[in-house]
Automatic annotation (TrEMBL):
<keyword id="KW-0816">Tricarboxylic acid cycle</keyword>
<keyword id="KW-0408">Iron</keyword>
<dbReference type="InterPro" id="IPR034804">
    <property type="entry name" value="SQR/QFR_C/D"/>
</dbReference>
<keyword id="KW-0249">Electron transport</keyword>
<dbReference type="InterPro" id="IPR000701">
    <property type="entry name" value="SuccDH_FuR_B_TM-su"/>
</dbReference>
<comment type="function">
    <text>Membrane-anchoring subunit of succinate dehydrogenase (SDH).</text>
</comment>
<dbReference type="Pfam" id="PF01127">
    <property type="entry name" value="Sdh_cyt"/>
</dbReference>
<dbReference type="GO" id="GO:0020037">
    <property type="term" value="F:heme binding"/>
</dbReference>
<feature type="transmembrane region" description="Helical">
    <location>
        <begin position="20"/>
        <end position="42"/>
    </location>
</feature>
<keyword id="KW-0349">Heme</keyword>
<keyword id="KW-0812">Transmembrane</keyword>
<feature type="transmembrane region" description="Helical">
    <location>
        <begin position="72"/>
        <end position="90"/>
    </location>
</feature>
<keyword id="KW-1133">Transmembrane helix</keyword>
<keyword id="KW-0479">Metal-binding</keyword>
<dbReference type="GO" id="GO:0046872">
    <property type="term" value="F:metal ion binding"/>
</dbReference>
<dbReference type="GO" id="GO:0006099">
    <property type="term" value="P:tricarboxylic acid cycle"/>
</dbReference>
<comment type="pathway">
    <text>Carbohydrate metabolism; tricarboxylic acid cycle.</text>
</comment>
Length: 131
């Protein structure tokens, strides 16, 4: 596990390229997520009046593939970012190697289920216009 603040320190501390790549991913995804979520909040709560924020309006917005991709990117990046952060915590606090293995298995299964259900919910949502 890398506990560095700079790239040079991280490169020195990393035992594998995968660990260094995850360290870089955490920094990049954190910055990207800030802008994606601020954009999502702007489009959801600021640019739309409260009376227009209905289920029909949301499904109409999500009829556009660009918005689905935008929301799916938020889903993927946030799950990967959170899962990697939780992996660090599991490594720190679960001392027994067999227990750590099972905690990780259960945790990754939950993360996979969240990804699958989130993707299904996002991509199967179809516009329903009131007549």
């Amino acid at each position: 596990m890398i506990r560095a603040k700079t790239y040079a320190d991280a490169k020195e501390q990393s035992h594998t390229n995968a660990e260094l790549n995850w360290w870089i991913f955490m920094r990049v995804s954190g910055v990207v997520l800030v802008f994606l979520i601020l954009g999502h909040l702007w489009m959801t709560y600021v640019s739309v009046s409260e009376k227009d924020a209905t289920f029909t309006a949301v499904t109409a917005k999500l009829a556009d593939p660009v918005w689905k991709l935008y929301d799916w990117l938020i889903l993927v990046l946030s799950l990967l970012h959170g899962a990697n952060g939780a992996r660090y915590s599991i490594e720190d606090y679960v001392r027994s190697r067999p227990n750590r293995f099972w905690v990780k298995i259960i945790f990754y299964a939950v993360m996979a289920a969240l990804f699958i259900f989130g993707s299904i919910g996002l991509f199967t949502l179809t516009p329903s216009f009131n007549k």
